[in-house]
Amino acid sequence: MKLLFVGGTGNISSSCSRLALALGHELWLLHRPGRPGIAGAHDLHCDINDEAAAAAALAPHHFDVVVQFISFEPAQIERDVRLFSGRCRQYVFLSSASAYAKPRTFAPITERTPLENPHWQYSRNKIACEHALRVAGQAGFPFTIIRPSHTYDTVILLPIGGWLDFTAIERMRRGQPVIVPGDGTSLWTITHSEDFAQGLLGLLGNARALGEDFQITSDEVLTWNELYIQTAAAAGAPPPTLVHIPSELLVAWLPQLEGTLLGDKSHTAIFDNSKLRRAVPEFRPRIAYREGIRRTLAWFDAEASRRRLPPDTDIEIEKVLAAYAKAWPEGNLSS
């Protein structure tokens, strides 16, 4: 198939690009000039936010599938509908599992779980994108919606001092305490991007995927405590000193965490991938977190510039730890 990935070189999409090439697809990557490509893929250099320039770059092409990795607002979906109508047989939008309403009682998340997130604008925007796409679908636009959840390769999954920030890892290597939101016992699903890529590529050109939505996650579920412990081991750090602080209290001190904590990670998240497996029976996640995080940290350690240590992060962590120690001197400190 002739595929176009809008993006294609990021945390999730790089693995998807490599797998597409390994499977023998003709892969094109649409990205801005100066961005690095992927060996074996063709490049379309333009800024998709410049709609006229993007239309000119796309004019000679027709694609079997377009995968949009980097749309976050409904206006961007509406732009894509204009750009790709009549130019592809399937348009795939990466939404987010953070769009799901968090259940009041525990139940595995399925594609029929309602979409609602009062705590995170990012998630509400993804919901609005999905709505815009369904409206276009009513007029014949051939779409598929994908919802990943906490997928990693070149990011660190820890919610405070992680992602593209190396602070949490550095603190563990120095033997300093790190903050765990909540009591560390809620369950969380993590997925390596190579496993995600299996599911995504299985849905491309798949007639069962048209007009449908799918979540793609692994089957590995760990407590947050175990995630921190395995991360520390992969980093070559001593057993971590974990300070458990309620998410609501963390948000009171650090309001910018409301979306990622109260809107997402402070809730247990276990996913039922039955719908995906009906469409892609060969989907078999293989990379355990213990191995995946070892690879991720090796990638960060391979180049000093990747290990970003914003000074404000460490300062904020120390302020929160001091405030918590003052409020609760016998606080929940464990290793």
Describe the secondary-structure layout.
Layout: E1 2-6, H1 13-22, E2 26-31, E3 42-45, H2 51-58, E4 63-68, H3 74-84, E5 88-94, H4 121-138, E6 143-148, E7 151-152, H5 167-173, E8 178-181, E9 187-189, E10 191-192, H6 193-203, E11 212-216, E12 221-223, H7 224-234, E13 242-245, H8 247-253, H9 258-265, H10 274-279, H11 289-301, H12 311-327, E14 333-334
Parallel strand pairs: 1-2, 1-4, 2-3, 4-5, 5-6, 6-11, 7-10, 8-13
Antiparallel strand pairs: 9-12, 13-14
Helix pairs in contact: 1-6, 3-4, 7-11
Strand order of the largest sheet: 3-2-1-4-5-6-11
Quick check: average pLDDT?
Answer: 94
**CATH fold description of the largest domain:** Rossmann fold
What is the CATH architecture descriptor of the largest domain? 3-Layer(aba) Sandwich
CATH level 1 class label of the largest domain:
Alpha Beta
| SSE sequence, one letter per element | EHEEHEHEHEEHEEEHEEHEHHHHHE
Number of separate domains: 2
- N-to-C span: 51 Å
Low-confidence sequence ranges: none
**Percentage of residues in DSSP E strands:** 15-25%
Individual helix count: 12
State the total count of DSSP E strands: 14
What gyration radius follows from the Cα positions, in whole Å?
21 Å
What structural class results from the helix and strand content? Answer: alpha/beta
The quaternary structure here is single chain
| Largest sheet geometry | 7 strands, parallel
Helix content: 25-40%
Q: Based on Cα principal axes, name the global outline.
A: globular
CATH superfamily of the largest domain: NAD(P)-binding Rossmann-like Domain
